[in-house]
Amino acid sequence: MIIVRAPFRISFFGGGTDYPVWYEKHGGEVLGTSIDKYSYISCRYLPPFFEHKYRVVYSAIELTNQINEIDHPSVRECLRFLGLKEGVEVHYDGDLPARSGMGSSSSFTVALLRALFALKKIEINKQELALKAIHVEQDLIGESVGSQDQTLASFGGLNHIKFGANRTIDVRPLPISWEKQKDLQ
To answer: What is the predicted pLDDT for the residue at 101?
Structure first.
């Protein structure tokens, strides 16, 4: 079983410049931090003796045999994106409710992708994780969201983020004391 967490975030400056339609032409910059509240995901391969192939537990419980039958858009698209053919069980718990305004859906997607990559025994760095979460939310799900939430959830800590053409992301951690840094991650 894999257990992963990704932090929620607070943005200070630059909101709106993290949307691809803006930063692809003009660039964008955001100053934000993660906080000590998290999305928790646990997942495992589901043993073959169940009547269902996929079990997804969040505020609802979904039992399906096809990825296309999964209602939760992030779970459905992450499983499809990673090409998981084996049965999988996914559980979600969060320190804050959905629609809290603190990037909870992106924290969910980041944690889910990280857990699924670990389940497949694939290493992924923070930059790749952020870019893949952005791809899932913006391109596969079709959400009209920016890119700061996924980036802050992937990197954690206090960061100055620059967005550029071709979805480039330059993340610069800002120096803070060790005591404060460990509290944020």
So the answer is: 78
pLDDT greater than 70 at residue 118:
yes
Looking only at the bridges linking them, the beta strands covering 54-57 and 28-45 are: unpaired
3-state secondary structure of 25: helix
Domain extent at residue 146: 2-184
Strand partners, 168: 164
- Say how far apart CA 2 and CA 23 lie, in whole Å: 35
63: which 2 tokens? 């039992």
- Give the helix ranges, DSSP H, for 34-142: 73-82, 104-119, 126-134
Backbone angles phi, psi at 65, to 5 degrees: -110, -10
What does the alpha-carbon distance between residue 18 and residue 30 come to, in Å, rounded to a whole number? 7
Domain count, the chain: 1
Tens digits of residue pLDDT in 151-164: 999 999 999 999 99
Taking alpha carbons only, the member of 152, 146, 158, 135 closest to residue 81 is 135
CATH number of the domain enclosing 39: 3.30.230.10
Q: Is the pTM of this model over 0.85?
A: yes
C-alpha dist (Å) from residue 68 to 76, 77, 137:
7, 9, 17
H or E stretch covering 129: helix 126-134
- Specify the residue for token string 């559980």: 91
